[in-house]
Amino acid sequence: MKTRIITGIMVTVLLLPALVFGAATAKLRHVVSIYLDAKEGMINLPQGVAARGTLVVVADSANGRLLKYTFQEGILKGGDEIRVTEVSYPEQVAISSKNEIFVLDGKQRRIARIGAEGSFKGFVKAEGVPGTSDFMPMSFRLDNADNLYILDIFSARVLVLDPAGKYLKSADFPEQYGFISDVEVDFRGTVFLLDSVKSTVYSLARDAKEFTALTRSLKDDMNFAVNMAVDAKGFLYIGDQNGGGVVIIGPDGSYQGRQLGFGWKEGLLRYPAQMAFNEKEDFFIADRNNNRIQIFSLIK
Amino acid sequence: MRLKSGIYSAILASIVLVFVFSQTDAQEKFKLKPGAKGKVCITCHADFQEKLKSLYVHTPVKTGDCTGCHSPHASSHGKLLAADPNRICFKCHSKILPDSAVSSHKVVSEGNCVKCHDPHATNNRFVLLKPGNDLCFGCHKSLGDSISKVKFKHSPVQKGCTVCHNPHASARGPHLLKEEAKTLCLQCHKTDKGSFASRHMGYPVAKGRCTTCHAPHGSDAGGLLYANVHKPVANKQCSQCHEAPTSSNPFATKKAGYELCKGCHSAMVNDTFNKNRIHWPVVSNKGCSSCHNPHASPEKGLLKAPMLGLCGNCHADTIARQQKSQTKHPPISEGNCTACHSPHSSDNAFILNQASVIDLCGTCHDWQKHSTHPIGEKLRDPRNKNLFVQCLSCHRSHGTENKNFIYFAQIGEMCTQCHAQYKR
User: Fold this and answer.
1) For residues B167-189, b (16+ Cβ closer than 10 Å) or e, as one string?
2) Assembly ipTM
């Protein structure tokens, strides 16, 4: 009896940290990095990466092209080039449920649609938007239904369009924002905005009308954040561009910790840009100034 | 009648008692000889006799209450002060900083009262060290210099800084202004006068902020406009950008964001848009006015503020990194961000104004392009096969906590990043 009690106490003591800090222990483990295309050409200042199923698409920005890879069970293959004349400086990418590629051209500041086979299908146009249908996309995301969430910085709003470009809804940036750099949407339809200047994340629940602050100011935890990605459980991963790291935020806005650091070697970052998860929670980071994409697995 | 005289007697008695007690307080505390208070210190500090002849004498000095501020025997503070020199004045002057101050003078909040006041006596009102604006310009030297040189002087400035500013703190205005700037201006400038309206082209500018266009301390430009005036403002062509003054929203601009500016600056806007990487605020809802004042500015290029502060509004971390850096990089410490960056757009990372970092650094550090550690595209970085060795391989241009803005505290630690065989 006495032995059982002691064993019980010991097990509880050993498990306690795991139970208490369980949410904060999400760690990123480096799996592999992408440096080259299929012809062994080096990628240059990649700013975008997206993943869906086994497909990985890289915006090889300074080379003005997209690259397609497959990533499965830790094995990376491919690197075929997609180059369309209509897109000169790809900055962000997303993959639809039909494996279409959406790409933000930083030079033209337009979102192009590219077929699964690699042909240009046109630029995204908004229809039926109250007021002006013109928009200035600094960032965008697709949700599970392929609806487009566009960060329209000219009109200080998030514009939501259906897959055909028809207006669904919009929401103005919150009052007193500093500078909004990125938009993200989770599996529940909650929309997030990243304020780089105020180091704050705002959220808008599916049925809410106004953005509200999700986090406190994270100025003490990061330098200058420009990109974010959300995982399947609603945890936000914020890329600290100038600090070279990833700050993790819980679904309730709580600070969960900081991963990675500034540097050149694998597992370190220099000015990270777009980040993305696939369904298996492999985590992709466009490690811009290291001229590579790094792939991490999530250990919780 | 008898009651009234009784009240007077009581008040008089109270005053006498308060005086007697205040006199006896120090005498009893330090067991001074009768009548010694206010005299005993002077016996040694004889030079004070002369000081006491000043026109304005601090009350405790005047009443001989030296122990109000000093401990006569011993103290933990300099000059035998009875309390922390930065806090001692607040013992009596506790209300000098309002609880809800909108702005406060740094010297006051730090308790550096003696920067402006003599604690004993002077010939200036409020025992100030110097009379009038001379005192203020002792610290605000560049402002004083520019005010003395400007062609058109603002008369309240000539009368004294305290016409508009509270020297200690303000509960109502920024920059120690007695009121919010607009309210303050309207106390003298009558906006209902015909000449005021005609000078402002009929726009209801009383609703706006005067200091958007006007230099409150004086200017070389007529109408106290800032040195750099946007052409349409100088030409009184307000309606070129704004709705008509009689419209329901006269300050509304005819177009939004950069589209308004493109009307005149089309070549510049087209050039900006023809680059791979845009500085995103250019195409935000604020557009060009994110960084530029569309009316007038003391800064070149109508910038809203000196570059270091302006860029630092968003890139505070970068500016802070430079401030913490042991070695200063002159373009940053001097606030010349455009020495390296193209503020509108560029084809290069970090919107740098040259494609090659080596060439960019070489514009100032020319000899280090050829007489340095091997650098260039032929030399791969051992840490990352997709990079070549260049200036930023070892230095962080905005600074680090280490000398010469290298990434590591020990130079050996940095070198062995690549030369791992020498690592101990």
Assistant:
1) bbbbebbeebbbbebeebbeeee
2) 0.90
